[in-house]
Design brief:
Blueprint lengths: L48 H13 L4 E5 L10 H15 L1 H4 L4 E9 L2 E9 L5 H24 L9 H15 L1 E2 L11 H7 L1 E2 L1 H14 L5 E8 L2 E10 L2 E5 L16 E3 L1 H7 L12
Parallel strand pairs: 4-5
Antiparallel strand pairs: 1-3, 2-3, 6-7, 7-8, 8-9
Length: 287
């Protein structure tokens, strides 16, 4: 949720992004460019939440929607494995909405493989078929890459800038170019596709788009933080910029009275909690 405010039409320097130029989308986007390689691994005999986080992130970036994981060195699957797999999925949906916001369905069941116990893990969507998910993710990433390329071409952003300045420019771009879906009518409203392509989203879409744009300009220490806003679920960004941990809420930074609310760029944790009405509650950061 975000504050109730009147949407205004804003003329801004980033308006050129709406105009399609002659340059086509990048032919291919390598998702592995935007995550830390150490976070992706098909762990043998997974048991911990961290093990399953690596596997699920691998599944997403490789467009693998079902995986059978045999436990070759065990006679039985650890008792907490399925619980930890579900916990890992919940964590990843919030930490990495740019990758996982479209995945609204997860299951993990015990199976047999090669005569050994195994887990059958699946990530998918209740709204879209797997092929649609792949297409939407590709278009989302390509559109984000084209946006960054355009900002560089027009000398709005420079990759040699410090992280803070790059993050602030992208904060401005997201809040000026995204409309909040008050009526909850768009199927993609919780995804980066909704924010980057449809230009209409809710908080998860804002953060998905913003976090991916940050990654594309070299800021990779960035995650989503889930908490409350006016007693409803909400998500914002935590990023490390030039060695400093900052909190950024692009949804609440959306313009009011022709002005971006910069109070929500580089806001400290205590102030953010007070602004959102639930002091001290941050689900996944405190997890």
């Amino acid at each position: 949720m975000r504050k109730n405010k009147t949407r205004v039409f804003v003329f801004f320097v980033f308006l050129f992004i709406f105009i399609k130029g002659s340059r086509a989308y990048a032919e291919e986007v390598n998702y592995l460019d935007y995550v830390n390689a150490s976070e992706i691994l098909v762990v043998q005999n997974p048991q911990t939440v961290e093990d399953f986080e690596k596997i699920l992130l691998y599944m997403d970036v490789s467009d693998t929607y079902t995986m059978l994981i045999p436990y070759m060195d065990r006679a039985v699957i650890p008792g907490d494995a399925i619980y930890n797999a579900n916990k890992a999925f919940d964590l990843l949906r919030n930490k990495y909405p740019e990758f996982f916001a479209s995945h609204t369905y997860f299951y993990c069941t015990r199976e047999k493989a090669y005569g050994r116990p195994a887990l059958n893990v699946s990530i998918n969507s209740l709204e879209f078929e797997s092929k649609d998910l792949q297409d939407k993710k590709r278009i989302f990433f390509e559109t984000a890459k084209e946006t960054v390329d355009d900002l560089i071409d027009h000398k709005v952003i420079d990759l040699e800038m410090n992280d803070y300045d790059k993050a602030k420019i992208l904060f401005e771009w997201v809040v000026f170019n995204t409309t909040y879906d008050y009526d909850f009518v768009m199927k993609d409203r919780q995804t980066g596709y909704g924010a980057m392509v449809d230009k209409i989203a809710v908080c998860e879409g804002y953060v998905s788009a913003y976090n991916l744009l940050l990654r594309m300009v070299g800021i990779k220490d960035v995650i989503g933080i889930v908490g409350y806003s006016e007693d409803a679920g909400h998500i914002w960004t935590r990023a490390v910029l030039d060695g400093k941990t900052v909190y950024i809420d692009p949804t609440w930074g959306d313009p009011r009275n022709m002005n971006i609310d910069y109070d929500y760029f580089d806001i400290d944790r205590e102030s953010l909690m007070q602004a959102h009405g639930r002091q001290g509650i941050v689900w996944w950061e405190d997890y």
